Amino acid sequence: MQRTANPSTTISTALSVNIYAVIASAMVMAVLFAAWTSWSGYRITRTPAQIRTLLDVRVQASESHIYLEEYLGGDSAESPEKILGFMRAATQQLAVLEGSVVDANTPPLTDADQRAKLRQATELLNELTRLTRVRIRLQGEGAAGSEYDLRFDTAFDSFLESCKALEDDLHAESVSALRTFILMQTLMTLLIIAMFSWLYRLLRNKENKESVIREEMQATHAELLKSRALMQEHNLRQEAMLQLTRKAQSAIGVEQFSHTLLTSLCDEQNAIAGMVWLSRHHGGLEPVARWCTHGSTEDSGNHADGLVAQVAHSGKAASYATPPRYLRIESGLVSANPGHVMVLPVRYQSATVAVFELAFIESPAPEARAFIEEVLDAMAVRYFMFSHSNTDVPADDGTASNTTGNTAGGAA
Question: Which of 9, 210, 368, 407 is deepest in the core (most CB within 10 A)?
């Protein structure tokens, strides 16, 4: 007699095959989504470094333009080598973006349109360098107002516009990558939810299935909201840093630049007082900016000692609670002592080029300190150029750079 297959065994085998097929398909899709999400995350992390490099290029080209005009105007403190040095530094930074010079912190551009704009900016910079050499050679021969002046100004404006267009493209790419990253996380979350829903539909009864799915969806929704909030916070932080950098880069001279940067940092992070020290390449620290919300501090001299000098020498930040009567900030109604002080070095190529000292009512959050350190790292190249400038920094008497403080108050 012929034996027939057990129906329960057949159904169990088919169910197992279906479950394995769904799990395998879900795993393949999860791997694909994870790979795409990783690529989007990499795009998010690489574009800020490329944007900072472009900002450095624009700053260096602008510095070269300023010093060239001063040199042609008869300023003996400036030299052709110094002017052309800024041009060479800008060319070096563009070479990093192109990939011909390797920089571990700045990946090269890969998009074809962006590389085309980069080549255009490089050609304009080469033309600027050539015109700079011509104008220097023609100094004293009626070059002012000549055809070379007009050609130089036109090329300089075109170069800045080209850099700005490339910077806008990189910013748009960063925003697009951020959106893609969030979308991929959402799709992966929905995929996981769908897989669990299907498995529970096969293996659980209706009541148990609804309860488990509800709990899983609530947990997944909370994780999704948390991830979205983190991404939004990261995006806002990058936006704030870019806006602060753009605001500071328009300043001319170390005092104006430092005062603009210090004021913006104090306003952004709720610091009540601050001071900036510039490390000169020939040795020593000089105060170049100070700021106080409700009053002005006493003149602390033209040279730093104690903790500021120690931080400059060691290159390590210091953060401590202030002792009583360390510093008193007064206004017409209130009088307060800072409760916490941070002293942060600005490092470039393993050397301290500036020191920032900030006072707070209470200890700042770790996110605030991380933001300040990131901004100072982005400004390291600018302070390096200031510290190696031949122009002496005037002594700070407490009145020139402390323009935002009130006249009432002082050191306790």
Answer: 368
